[in-house]
C-alpha cells in the first residue's frame, strides 16, 4: 500500500514526524505494510526550526498512490498553487485517499475535497477556516474526522489519532493497537464510521476516568449506565452531563461503542462464534450485536470479520 507524504510551502517538523512515524517506520512484524515516500511539487529542500533542513524528492506530477498525506499547509495562503490543487484532485478522482494534519485542512478545503464532508482543524485557526469556507460543515469539538476516503485532524497531536484510525481501517485493530503501544498511546479509540475520538479527560483516576476503565473491563449485558455512574460516585444526571461534555455523545452511545470495540477485536483475533462474541462483548445476544453493527458500522459482523481477519 503506497503512501505519499506531500510537503507544500513550509516544513512543520512535528506533523512531518507524526507522518513518518505512523506510515514510514519499518514494521517487519506486519506484512504487508506501507511503502512511503516524502515528495514535493514545489521544492527539493525545506528549512525547519532551530536551523534544521530537509531534503526531499521534487516531482512534476504525483505518482500513483493509495494514500496522500498533507502534514501541514500555511493558513496565510488563500489561493494555493493551481498545479498543486490539480494534482490533489487528480489523485482523488483516480480513487486515492487524502488526509491532512492540522492546518492541512485549508488545502483540502481549497481543493473542494471537503465539500459535503465534515471538516476540522487546529482551534487557533477555526475562526479563519469558518470565515474562509462558510459553506463547509465545520466541527469544533472533535479531534479528527475520517470517512475512509478523506480525513482531517485538529491540533498537532490529533494527527496521531487520525493516523491510528487509518491504520485500523487498513490493517485492523491488532496492527493499530501495536502501533499505538509503540507510541505509548491508549490502544483503543472510538469506533463507528464517523470516527469521532473522545476528548482527553482531565479528571483524576479517582473519579470518572477510573469508572470508565472499570466499565471497559467489565462489559456485560447487565452493565448499566447507572452502575458506571455509581462507580464514579456521581448521580446519573451528573454522569450523563460529564460524558456529553467530554465525549460529545450520550453515555449509552459511549457504552455501545466500547462493546463494539470489544466485538471487533474478538472478530479479528478469535474463532469464537457470533453468539459467543456477542456475550463476551456485552450484548444481550447475536441479534443485538448484528443490529448495532448495521446501525453504527453499516456492515454485518461476518462482513467485518472477512474484511479484517488476517490468518
UniProtKB/TrEMBL annotation:
Organism: Rheinheimera aquimaris
InterPro entries the record matches: Class_I_gatase-like, DJ-1/PfpI, Homeodomain-like_sf, HTH_AraC, HTH_AraC-typ_CS, INH-QAR
PROSITE patterns: HTH_ARAC_FAMILY_1 (PS00041), HTH_ARAC_FAMILY_2 (PS01124)
Domain HTH araC/xylS-type, residue spans: 209-307
Name under which the protein is recorded: Transcriptional regulator FtrA
Top-rank taxon: Bacteria
Keywords attached to this entry: DNA-binding, Transcription, Transcription regulation
PANTHER family associated with the record: ARAC-FAMILY TRANSCRIPTIONAL REGULATOR, HTH-TYPE TRANSCRIPTIONAL REGULATOR RV1931C
Extent of the signal sequence: none
Amino acid at each position: 500500500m503506497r503512501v505519499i507524504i506531500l510537503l507544500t510551502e513550509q516544513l512543520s517538523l512535528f506533523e512531518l514526524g507524526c507522518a513518518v512515524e505512523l506510515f514510514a517506520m519499518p514494521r517487519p512484524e506486519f506484512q504487508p505494510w506501507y511503502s512511503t515516500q516524502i515528495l514535493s511539487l514545489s521544492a527539493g529542500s525545506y528549512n525547519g526550526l532551530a536551523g534544521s533542513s530537509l531534503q526531499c524528492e521534487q516531482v512534476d506530477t504525483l505518482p500513483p498512490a493509495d494514500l496522500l498525506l498533507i502534514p501541514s499547509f500555511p493558513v496565510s495562503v488563500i489561493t494555493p498553487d493551481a498545479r498543486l490543487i490539480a494534482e490533489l484532485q487528480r489523485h482523488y478522482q483516480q480513487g486515492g485517499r487524502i488526509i491532512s494534519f492540522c492546518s492541512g485542512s485549508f488545502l483540502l478545503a481549497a481543493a473542494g475535497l471537503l465539500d459535503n464532508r465534515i471538516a476540522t482543524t487546529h482551534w487557533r485557526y477555526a475562526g479563519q477556516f469558518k470565515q474562509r469556507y462558510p459553506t463547509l460543515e465545520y466541527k469544533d469539538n472533535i479531534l479528527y474526522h475520517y470517512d475512509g476516503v478523506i480525513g482531517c485532524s485538529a491540533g498537532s497531536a490529533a494527527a496521531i489519532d487520525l493516523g491510528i484510525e487509518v491504520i485500523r481501517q487498513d490493517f485492523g485493530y491488532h496492527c493499530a493497537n501495536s502501533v499505538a503501544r509503540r507510541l505509548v498511546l491508549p490502544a483503543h479509540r472510538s469506533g463507528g464510521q464517523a470516527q469521532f475520538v473522545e476528548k482527553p479527560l482531565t479528571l483524576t483516576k479517582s473519579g470518572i476516568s477510573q469508572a470508565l476503565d472499570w466499565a471497559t473491563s467489565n462489559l456485560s449485558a447487565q452493565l448499566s449506565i447507572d452502575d458506571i455512574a455509581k462507580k464514579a460516585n456521581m448521580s446519573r444526571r451528573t454522569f450523563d452531563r460529564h460524558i456529553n461534555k467530554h465525549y460529545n455523545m450520550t453515555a449509552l452511545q459511549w457504552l455501545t461503542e466500547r462493546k463494539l470495540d470489544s466485538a471487533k477485536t474478538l472478530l479479528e483475533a478469535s474463532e469464537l462464534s457470533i453468539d459467543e462474541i456477542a456475550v463476551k462483548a456485552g450484548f444481550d445476544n447475536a441479534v443485538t450485536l448484528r443490529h448495532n453493527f448495521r446501525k453504527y458500522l453499516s456492515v454485518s459482523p461476518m462482513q467485518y470479520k472477512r474484511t479484517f481477519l488476517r490468518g
